[in-house]
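ok, trying the design again with the full structure, not the truncated one.
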């Protein structure tokens, strides 16, 4: 193709192969990540595998897996499967890991088994930022919250209003079944015997649910905020941006330095608003 910028022939042999380092600029963020990892004492921070086992198959060094995790955080890549693909094709990540490409299960297990140690790394990062003057007295701090959905289903979360509404719904169902039984008493031909037996079973089931809700009501009255979640006790129902919508979860509040946009601190709460 004439008069176009031409690329290199894929089948062209190279006498002196390029170095991987040539593809990563001097100001690339992965060089900062690499320098930060080298300065960490992973053993003191509590990372599993920081001291290699004398027997068994060699494991990945925690610095490699932590580097992948930090790179994913910086580039909004959260999935361990996506991180696995990036380690196989992303030049920056190849440079950072030395062309190591752990599978997604290894990456996910590292994240699961080293949660406390990763939190310690976050604290170390904040300390480094303070030492080099990234946080100054003149800069302000912005605080905002993000709602994260919990495992707890909305049907397993109760407030006084939701509990009373659920009890009224069950009582209405019992009333409808009782009316049908009254019709069967007045004229047995209207309702077959099998239907009558089925209705009685349903009434008994609804009464059992009401008794269960009564037990929940006792626990609900003993809670300070008059709210209870059965699956995830700490989760709370919180309003979201959509009108009339709510999610059962947590409010992660983050304080960010307004000058360099660095996270100063974060805290997980179950308070639905950010006013306090």
């Amino acid at each position: 193709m004439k008069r176009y910028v031409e690329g290199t022939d894929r089948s062209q042999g190279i006498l002196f192969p390029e170095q991987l380092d040539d593809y990563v600029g001097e100001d690339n963020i992965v060089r900062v990540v690499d320098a930060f990892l080298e300065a960490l004492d992973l053993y003191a921070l509590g990372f599993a595998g920081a001291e290699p086992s004398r027997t068994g198959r060699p494991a990945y060094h925690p610095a490699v897996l932590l580097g992948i995790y930090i790179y994913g955080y910086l580039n909004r890549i959260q999935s361990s499967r996506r991180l696995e693909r990036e380690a196989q094709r992303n030049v920056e990540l190849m440079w950072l890991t030395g062309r190591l490409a752990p599978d997604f299960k290894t990456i996910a297990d590292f994240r699961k088994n080293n949660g406390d140690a990763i939190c310690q790394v976050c604290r170390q990062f904040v300390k480094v930022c303070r030492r080099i003057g990234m946080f100054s007295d003149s800069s302000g701090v912005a605080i905002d919250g993000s709602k994260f959905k919990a495992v707890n289903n909305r049907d397993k979360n109760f407030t006084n209003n939701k509990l009373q509404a659920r009890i009224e719904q069950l009582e209405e169902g019992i009333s409808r079944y009782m009316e049908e039984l009254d019709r069967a008493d007045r004229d047995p031909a209207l309702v077959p015997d099998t239907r009558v037996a089925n209705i009685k079973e349903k009434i008994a089931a609804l009464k059992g649910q009401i008794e269960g809700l009564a037990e929940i009501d006792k626990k609900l009255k003993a809670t300070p905020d008059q709210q209870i979640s059965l699956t995830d006790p700490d989760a709370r129902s919180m309003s979201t941006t959509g009108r009339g919508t709510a999610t059962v979860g947590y409010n992660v509040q983050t304080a960010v330095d307004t000058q360099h946009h660095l996270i100063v601190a974060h805290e997980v709460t179950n308070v639905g608003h950010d006013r306090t």
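Keeping the full-length input from now on. Residues 20-132 form one domain.
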